[in-house]
TrEMBL record:
Lineage: superkingdom: Bacteria
Domain Response regulatory: 4-120
InterPro entries: Bact_response_regulator, CheY-like_superfamily, Sig_transdc_resp-reg_receiver
Protein name: Response regulator
Organism field: Ideonella lacteola
UniProt KW keywords: Phosphoprotein
Keyword Phosphoprotein: yes
Sites of 4-aspartylphosphate modification: D53
């Protein structure tokens, strides 16, 4: 059975780029347009890994990350933050909230797939 990755980003075109790269690598993909949408989908899905943007309407990525890390169901789900944010403070905040990796946009799809391959258990 293939592993599933949830992609959380408010940009539809960006989600498509990530989805195509992951599908090509053999992963199933669930899309969410922001943190709130992702939380709703997590009630019925248990992805092996989550790729999440930081800046989104409704609920930003760090708030979403803190929320899922406080639940027993998703406490150990690895999360890769994929964002335009590159400040050390933001990265530190992400690590403190439980992010396993931090990648900045623009990104190389192959680098993302490598990170997913390493973290997706």
């Amino acid at each position: 059975m293939s592993k599933t990755v949830m992609v959380v980003d408010d940009s539809g075109s960006f989600r498509t780029v990530v989805k195509l790269a992951l599908q090509k690598a053999g992963y199933g993909v669930v899309e969410a347009c922001d943190g709130k949408d992702a939380l709703a989908k997590l009630t019925t899905q248990k992805p092996n890994l989550i790729v999440c943007d930081v800046n989104m309407p409704q609920m930003d990525g760090l708030t979403f990350l803190r929320q899922i890390k406080s639940t027993a169901t998703h406490k150990f789900t690895p999360v890769i933050m994929l964002t335009t944010e590159s400040q050390e403070e933001k990265k530190a905040e992400g690590r403190a909230a439980g992010a396993r990796a931090w990648m900045t946009k623009p990104f190389q799809p192959s680098q993302l797939v490598d990170a997913v391959n390493r973290l997706c258990v």
